[in-house]
Fold this sequence. Notes:
The chain is an alpha/beta fold and 416 residues long. 36% of the residues lie in helices and 21% in strands. The strands form three sheets. Strands 1, 2, 3, 4, 5, 14, 15 and 16 form an eight-stranded mixed sheet that branches. A four-stranded parallel sheet has the order 6-7-8-9. Strand 2 and strand 3 (44-50) form a beta hairpin. Helix 7 packs parallel to helix 8 (231-244). The structure holds 3-[(4S)-2,5-dioxoimidazolidin-4-yl]propanoic acid and fe (iii) ion. Fe (iii) ion binds at residues 81, 83, 251, 326.
Amino acid sequence: MKNDFKKYGWDNLWVNAQIATMSSEVDAPYGLKPNCSIATRGDRIVWIGEEDSLPREAFPSTKNVIDCQGKLVTPGLIDCHTHLVHAGDRCNEFEMRLNGASYEEIALAGGGIVSTVNATRKSSEDELFNESASRLERLMRDGVTTVEIKSGYGLNLDDEKKQLLVAQRLGERLPVHVVKTFLGAHAIPPEYSGQSDAYIKEVSENILPALHSLGLVDAVDAFCETIGFSLNQVEQVFKVANKLGLPVKLHAEQLSNMKGTQLASQYNALSVDHLEYLDSEGVNSIKKSGTVAVLLPGAFYCLRETKLPPIKLLRESDVPIAIATDSNPGSSPVLSLLLMLNMGCTFFKLTPEEALLGVTRNAASALGLAHEIGSLEVGKRADIVLWNISNPAQLSHTVGHLPCEQVMFRGVVRNV
Length: 416
Ligand code: DI6
Ligand code: FE
C-alpha cells in the first residue's frame, strides 16, 4: 500500500469532467475527452483518462478529489501580448478620437504612447506595482494562468528596468506566470525627438544588454511602423537579441504594411502581432519560420479599424493563430481575455475552437512555452481551469459572464 501511495500519491484528482485538452494528440474538436478525469502531483499533470480506467488505488491516496459534475475543464488561459504595467489612463485621448482625431495624429502631437511614458516615469515602483496588480487580478478572473507583459513605457534604462521589475514582482506575488518582454523600441522618447537612430543605438548597445544581464528579459519586441521604427532600426535590435540568445517578436503591419513580418521571420520570431495589413508574401514567410500570428481584436475594435487581418489565408496556410488582449491604455484598454475570444469570432470570423486554441496551445507557442503549457497532457504543467459551463463554445459565445469557477496554478487550486 505504501508503494501504491508513492505511485499514485496524487495531490488533486478532478473527476467527471468534459476535458478540452487542446492537445494535437487527441483527434477531436478541442481535443475533447468527455467524462474524463485529470490528476496532478506537485506542479505536473500525472494522469488523464476515462473514469472506468481510473486505478482504484488512486482514490484513497489522493489528497483532494473534486467532482466536476460534467463541467468543462481547459488548460489555464494564456494572454500572450499585454502592456499591463503602466501608469495612468488615456481617457482624454479616447475623447479626442471621438471628436475626430486619429491615433496617429494624437501620437504625432506628443500624446499617445509618449503620454503614458511620462506618467510611468513619474510613478514609483510601488505605485506601478499596485496599479498593475489590480489590472492583472481582473485578467486572472477569466482563468488566465500565464501572462506576457512588455516594457516600453520607460524608454530609458532606469524606467524600463522599473517596469520589468514590477512585472517580475507581479509573477512572484500573484498565482500567475509572468513572461517579461523588452519593448524598448516602442516609441521615441521625448529627449531623443528627431534622433531615432541615436535612440536605437542606446537601446541596442546599452539598455537591452544591461537588462538582460539582470535576468529581466525573456524576449525582445519592437514596434515596426511609420510612427514607430523602420525595418533597419528593428533589425539592429534583433541582431543584439540574437547575440544574447533571446527570442524576438514584432508589432507588425498594424497600421500599414512595412514588411516587418518578413524581417521577423528571418529572425525566427516567436510571433508577429496585430497584422491587419499583412499580405500574402508576409503569410508565406511566417509559414516557413513557424512564427505564430497573434491577433489583437481589442485594438482593432478600439481603433475602429476596418481592415481585417488575412484570416482565411493564415488558416489555409496552417499558420498558428493566437489571440491576446494587447491590454494597454491607448489602443486596447481591455481586461478580459474571454471578451477577446468573442471579438475574435465576431470580427475575425474565427471559430470558437480556433479562438480557444488562440489563448491556449498557440498562445503557448507564441511565448516559446508549448512544451510546458497550453494543452492538458501528462507531464505538462498543472495549470488548469474548471468552468461552470459544459460546452467550450460558450467561452466565446457569451459576453460579460464570469464562468471561471476554479483555477489550478502549478498544482495549487483556488476558487475564483
Ligand atoms: N501597438 C499597440 O497596440 C500598443 N503598442 C503598439 O506598438 C499601443 C500602445 C499605446 O498606445 O500605448
Ligand atoms: Fe501591443
